[in-house]
Every structure is written in C-alpha cells, then in structure tokens.
Amino acid sequence: MRLRPLKDSRQEASLFLYRAVAGFLIILVALGVLGARFWWLQVVQHDEFQARSDANRILTRPLAPSRGLIYDRNGVLLAENVAAFRLEVVPEQVADMDALLAGLRDTIGLTEDDVERFAALRKGKRSYQSVPLRVKLSEEEIARFEINRWRFRGVDVVPYLTRYYPRGVEFGHLVGYVGRIDANDLSRLDAARYAGTSHAGKTGIERAYEDVLHGEPGYELVEVNADRRPLRVLERVAPVPGKNIYLTIDTRVQDAAMEAFAGRPGASVAIDPRNGEVLAMVSVPSFDPNLFVNGISRGDYKALLDSPGKPLLDRALRGTYMPGSTIKPFMAAAGLELGLRRPGDVVYSSGEFFIPGQKRGYRDIRAGGHGRVDLVESIAQSVNTYYYALALEMGIDRLTESLGRFGFGKPTGIDLIGESSGVLPSRDWKRGRFNQAWYPGETVIAGIGQGYWVVTPLQLASGVATLAARGIPQRPHLLYATQAGVSDPLQKRPPDPPRASLFRDPSTWSAVHDGMVAVVNGPTGTARTLGEGFPYPIAGKTGTAERYSRTTEAWQHISQVAAERHQVLFECYTPADDARIAIIVALEAGRAGGRDAAPIARRMLDAWLLGETPPPVSPIPAPAAEATP
Amino acid sequence: MTPVWILRLQHRAMLALRRPRFDLPLLGGLVLLALVGLVTQYSASDLNATQAWNQTFRLLLGATLLVMVSRIPPGTLRNWTPWLFAGSVGLLVLVALLGEGRGAHRWLDLRFVRFQPSELVKLTMPMMVAWYLHQRPLPPSWTTLGVVAVMIAVPAGLVAEQPDLGTALLIMAAGLFVVFLAGLSWWRIGFIVGSVAGAAPIAWHFLHEYQRNRVRMLLDPDSDPLGLGWHIIQSKIAVGSGGLWGKGWHAGTQSRLEFLPEHTTDFILSVYAEEWGLVGVLLLLALYAFIIGRSLWIAANARDTYSRLLAGALAMSFFVYVLVNGGMIAGILPVVGVPLPLMSYGGTSAVSILASFGVLMSIHAHRRRVAG
C-alpha cells in the first residue's frame, strides 16, 4: 500500500488564512469596480439618463383582434360578438371600497358572485388598472348608474364585445364556448398573441379552431404621463380579425333532432357519407353556453353538475353505448369478406344457440327462433343465432381485425378535442384491462354487439357512413369553409385524399345493403313503418340492448317501465343506393330501436330533405293516405 | 419555588448568550439585508402586499432551514458529503430525463413542491470538493486537481445542458473557490485561467444562440432597443436616472411604468438603485462586503480543513452572485438569470442561500476554542 504524504494542518491553516485574505482583497477590489461603475452611471452620466427616463413615456398597448364568427353550412349564425357594457372600477381612485360596493348594490344590484370575482381579479392587477365589477349591464341599469354617477368616483361604464351564442342550448356541446383565459390556457397559448385578449375557446369548435378564430393582435404606441395615464396615441397597427368559420352542420337537421329527442337523454350524429361532412351532432340534454362566457355563477354550475341527465357530458363525442344489433351489418360484411358466408347461405335459428360442448344457451329475440334465415333476413329480423355462429367461426382475432377497419375502438379523428375511443373487444384489450384470458362465450356475444363493446355515437355514425359509401371510409369533420371577412369568398376545406374501399368484393356491399333496406322496407323488417311517405329508399338497422343485467336489482326496478327498459339505437342511410346522409340515433332509455330511435332519425331525414332537390321520380310510391292531405 | 424547567431554561439561555450558536454580526447582517430586500420588493411590486407576504414567507422558510442546518455539526456534514453530492447529481440526471419548465428543463415536480436540483448542487459542489481535498496534502497536486476537475465538470455540464449557463458557471465557481482556498499555487492558477481564456473562442461554438445574443447585446445594446437590448438599456436608464441620492422610495418611474421587465426578480437592483441612488448602492455593497468578510472570518477560525474550505468557498460564491447580478444591472456583464441574494423575488434562491448560511453558522458554533 502506498503511503499517503503526511498532512501538515498548521501549515494548511496558515496557507488558508493567506488565501482568504487575498480572496477578500480581490472581492473588495471587484466590489469597488462595481461601485465605481455605479458612480459612473449615477453621477457622471446622470443627466443623460435622467433625460432618457423623462422621455421614457411611450408604452406599447396590445389591441385584441375581434373573434371570427361561426355559421352553419347555409350561413345560419351560431356564434357572434355583441356589444355590451360593463362596470369597471379603478381601485386607486376609490377612497372607501366597501361603501362604494354597498352603494352600487343599492343602485344597480350586485350579486355575491360579482363581488367575489371582483376581489379575485383585483389581486392580479395594479391599483391604477381598472377592474371589471359587473358585466352585461342592462339599459336600465346604465341609466340608473348615470344618474348616481357623482356618488361613485373611479367607476365607469365601459363598452366591450362579448361572445353570444344565439342558438344557445342547441349547440352547447358542438360550438362550445369561450371563457376567461386562465393559467391552464396560458400554458398552451402564445402569450404575445394573447397579450390583449381576455377570452379563449374552452370547448367544442371554439376550442378546436381557436387558432383560426382568434386572429392576429395589433398594437398602439401610447404616450403616457408619470401616472401612466394615456395622453395620445402615437402609432397604431390595427389587429387582423379572426376568420369566420362555416360548419358542415345543417341547422335544420340539428333543429329536427333536438326537437325529436324532446329532452330524452341520448345523442345523434348525421354524416354525409360521400365526404365525411357532419350534418348534425346532437347531445341531449345540453346546456346554455352563454352562461360560461363571462364566468358561470356557482349556483348555475352546481345545477349543471348535479343534474341527473349530466348535461355537460357530450354524448355524441364521449357517450358510451353498447352497439347491440347495430353491429350486425358490420359483422355480416366481415363474414362475407372473410369468405365465411355467401349471401345465400342459410342458418337455422331455433331460439337458442349453444357453443358445442357447453351448456349455456344464447337466446334469440323471438322465442322459438326465426327458422331458416339467409343473410338479408338475418339483418331484417335481427337474428342473433346467425351472428352467434358467425362470430364463433370467425374467432375473436379476425373479428377484432375486421371490425377495427370500420373505425371501432379508436377515435375517428374528427376536428374536435376530447373524443373517446370506445372499446373494440379483443384479447389484448381484455388482457390489458382485466389481465384475463379470452373465452369463446365472449366471442359469441361480441358477435351481436354486446359484452365488452363500447362505441360512441360518432364512431357508429362514421362506421355507417363507411357502409353507405360502399366501404369507402371518410374522416368525419365539422369544418366546411373559412372566410377572412364578411364579404370575402369562402375558402372551402380541401377534401381528404381519396381512400380505397374496405370491401374487396363489391357484392359484399350489395348483400349487406339489401339486408338493411329490408329492415325498413321488407315485410319482416324491425323498422317497417319508417320509410312511409319518404321519397328515397332508406336502409337501416335497429339496436336494442338491455340497460341492466336481468339479475340485478336495478332491472327489477325498471322492468315494470317498458319505456325505460332498454338502451335503443337506430342507424340508417339514404338514398339507399347513392347515400348522401347517414344517421345514428342513440337513446339511453326506450322500448325498442325501431319504435323510439327510428322516428327521431325520420324527423332528421325529413328536415334534411328540405335542403335537397327532390328526386325526379319517386322510387317508392307514397301511400295514398299521405298523398292526399 | 421556581419550577425546575424554568431553571433549566434560564441555564440554557445563559449558555446561549455566553456562547451563541449563531454569529450575531453575521446574523444581523443577513436580517438587515432581508429587510432592505422586502422594502424594495414592496415598492417594486407597486405596493402589492401579497407579493411582499409571499417573500416574507419564503424568507422565514429559509430561516427555518438555516436553523435546522446550523444544528448539524460539520463532522456529520462531512461524513454525509459524498452521499449528498451523489444524490444531488442523481437529481440532475433525473431532471435531464424528465424535468419540466418552459424551454429549459430545470424543474423537478414533487407534487407538493417544485424545485431546481441545480440549486442543491450549488451547495453540495463546494462540500464535495472540500471533502475530497481535506484528506489530501495541500496545496493539491496535479493528480488531485484532475479528479477535482472531473468532479466539477460533470454536474456543471449537466446544468449547462438544461440549458442554464449562468447556474453552471456559478457551480463551477463554487468548486474552483475551494481549490483556490486550498492553496493552489499562483502560477498554476495563472496557467488554468490562461487556458480557459484560450478555450473561450471554442466555447462560443457551444453556446445557444440566445446566449450568444446576450453577449452581443452587452457590447451594443442600442442595436435592438425593443428586443434583447431592452433589458440592458432600461436597466441603465433606471440606474442612471437615480442619481446620487435617488428618487425616493416608491418614486422610481422606470419600474412603476413597467418599462423595466423582471423588476422584482433579477432586476431588483435597478429598482433599488433608481430609488436610493448611488448612496444606497454603496451602502448595500458595503453590507454585502461585510457579510462576505464576516463569513471569511468564520472560515479562518474553523476547526478543521474541511470546514475551513467549505465556509470560505460559500462566502466567495455569495460574492459571485452579487458581482454577476450587479455587473448585469450596471451593464458590464451579460444578462444571465442570477438573482441578487436575499433581494430578488423568488423562493429557491432565498432558501438555498439561507441554507448555506446555516452551514456557516454550524461551522462557527464548532470553531476552534483558542481563536479570539
């Protein structure tokens, strides 16, 4: 082992002392240099800097751009900016704030919320900056304030632009709302662009197209006096207003859906299968977005949160539904494409299906079964046995792969934020969720859209649109066009690059299509009355799923009320052979898909028809009763 | 009869008075500095009481830490040193992997508190070098210096990568001061300084563009009066217009009219200089000089080599903060984000500075008995 040289601690201590003294001398010299520099700036150059300080009276004030408007595809206004007046207070000029607030409360009325928000806003501002106290003053309130104005020094009525949603509740989820910019928004917004902006899109289109709607800020150079009061504007660069947005929505269809739901919880989405344009997107119950614009009051917010219908949940985008029998056309298409079935193949439905070697039976809707059915009848009558057998033959892996191609289990990519993925049953999903192996029985019920299945109305609508367009998928979207100014031409959204059909064999589509036409038009169809009086043939499929397992207490309770027993769905498209609209209607409680959900779809179709040029020849003759009013 | 516990308390109080744990002149200097800082804060934030209270709270937090650290004997601290150093460098690595912060990865989010591990390294770096050197013969040999160089380069490099060049330089300085105080011969110091100066043009290539711009702006701030030069120009106007006696408390127009950005944090000295003038600045510099001198005095009287080197390096690091920030305000050093100790608004800096004075207090409490 090498010997360490001995340490001489006394010598080290004296060496340190020597160094510490040297270090301190260097420090004193450095601080001396610093002090000399300050002497140079503050004494020698003082006059020059004093002059520059006096001249330093020009401030840059950001100017917020006005926000783009939102219209539907036909130019119906959905979001606008309206002039309003608010009361602002400059705290510096107020001698007794409590007395002032009390006086204003008697004169124009203030709520607890107003006072609280005022206190909160005041904290973040300097005493000479004005703070909003009451927004949206009525004419009467302004008049009453003006009369008593002399009593309220430091208070002023200030005009401002506020966002207004003339359609309110109807577009609460879809158009969304703007709100005051908070810390959360600041982390994703460019601070320089938003320097003068108070509100930003929080949800819906307002959030998704924030960039387009916001515009570019301008600024003005203002000369101020020593108290920071503006004296005159030296230079002004005007802001560039945000672009207007035209949505693909047809308000007539949206209206019809809203009315037809009549407050029953559920959702509906209508898509143009040719290009993925969303024609209507409804979630019931909804809320009034105008409540949120200037900060929702606590009472209103609590009421929305506590409401049993969950009005804040966007059911079209995030609602979770079991697809039930609406999945059958997709299953049928998968069976045909995989070569497991030919359209003419016949399956015998006895009323109950058994996995070979297992005791548990899987039931048909009709006790005693539907007898021998081919593919068209299996869709028309919604024959479970046909699909139990098909799913079992297909196996879960091929089922997952084939139905995944229609977009189930992943977001559709619509131009909104916060879309749910739903659940496409698969071995991997179950392994990840429950860490359990897959059982054949689960494949069987997956074949009729039950078990682990979860879809959003938007996903199902997108899937139906794909079916309707002969297997050609389109990305659903809401942006129709943008517009720089009111009188400028519309800039239409460029179409997505064309995609190939999911079907290798064109006969796949025609077989499934025939089945769905038979649902509405065939003698055995589950939505037989739907097409009456409609000029185009409609193709559709019903879905009815039990809301609760028959063994639970909730079922016992609800089984007495027929209208509450099921979660019902209806999907359809028309004109049947050249589809221009595909609709999905989901109702959270109802008797049967054909009975409760289909009529909503029909009313949407009637509204949609108003925007269509009527067909030259009606392919299906209207019943006499309808023809002669 | 006086209860026993009161007698005990009396006894302890007498002991404490006769032989205080804290060095009262140093403590007095720190308290005075903190008060000047608070008064300036209150003015710079335009009499925003919330901000003043926030800063008071942080100072109290730092003072608590000071008291806690001062209770740890230097021997214990010395034994912990390698672990503390390894831990703080480990945190730096962690930040490099998953840190957050705008543009730069400096912060570590511990749910209840977010902090910058680089602040911790400011303290553990001199501790580690002092720990390593105290068991080697001094002045250090070239081999020892080589090991120390690696010890300094690794954390400094990690911090520079964040990128936070200012803090990286401070960390390097803290380590190098220990070497200086250990008695590294003058010609070796000259050799090292010379080679660093020679390497500066190479280092220029490794700087981020914004860092290069800050150096360029220092040379010619008027070339970009609304961009990067803005800080320098406005700071100089604020300082220069203050004059000999200053404009008076809360009468500075530069900060009040919001011409001066960051006027409560890195540029607090501009506000102070505008309001209190050259006289105020010189008094403040004298106060800093007193705190640094007193700290070096404590170092010179420390019991062992480790305590001595550590205390001395902490004192000199403190000086560097003052110099770098003051030089930036006066427009003779580039704009780097170094706060002015106990004056600037911000928690991390105040807490870490006061913690380092906790170490000094502990070293003082365990000083050599013979020293006067």
Describe this structure in words.
The complex is a heterodimer of chains A (629) and B (372). By secondary structure, chain A is α+β, with helices and mostly antiparallel strands. Chain A is 36% helix and 19% strand. Chain A contains 22 helices and 21 strands. In chain A, the strands form six sheets. In chain A, strands 2, 3, 4, 5, 10, 17 and 18 form a seven-stranded mixed beta sheet that branches. In chain A, α9 packs antiparallel against α21, α13 packs across α15 and α13 packs antiparallel against α19. The C terminus of chain A is likely disordered. Chain B is mainly alpha-helical and 372 residues long. Chain B contains 14 helices and two strands. In chain B, β1 and β2 form a beta hairpin. Chain B starts with a helix and ends in a 7-residue tail after the last helix. Classes of the chains: A alpha+beta (629), B mainly alpha (372). Chains A and B meet through α1 and α2 of A and α7, α10, α11, α12 and α13 of B.
Percentage of residues in strands of chain A:
15-25%
Oligomer: heterodimer
In order across it, which strands form the biggest sheet of chain B? 1-2
Distance between the termini of chain B: 39 Å
Shape of chain A: elongated
Rg of chain B, nearest Å: 22 Å
Number-wise, the strands of chain B total: 2
Please give the radius of gyration of chain A in angstroms: 34 Å
Number of strands of chain A: 21
Instruction: Average the pLDDT over all residues of chain A and give the rounded result.
Output: 86
Q: Report low-confidence residues of chain A grouped into runs of 5 or more.
A: 617-629
Mean pLDDT of chain B: 82
Largest interface: A-B, 44 and 57 residues
Q: Please state the overall shape of chain B, judged from the principal axes of the Cα atoms.
A: globular
Percentage of β-strand residues of chain B? under 5%
Q: CA-to-CA gap between the ends of chain A? A: 115 Å
Number of continuous helical runs of chain B: 14
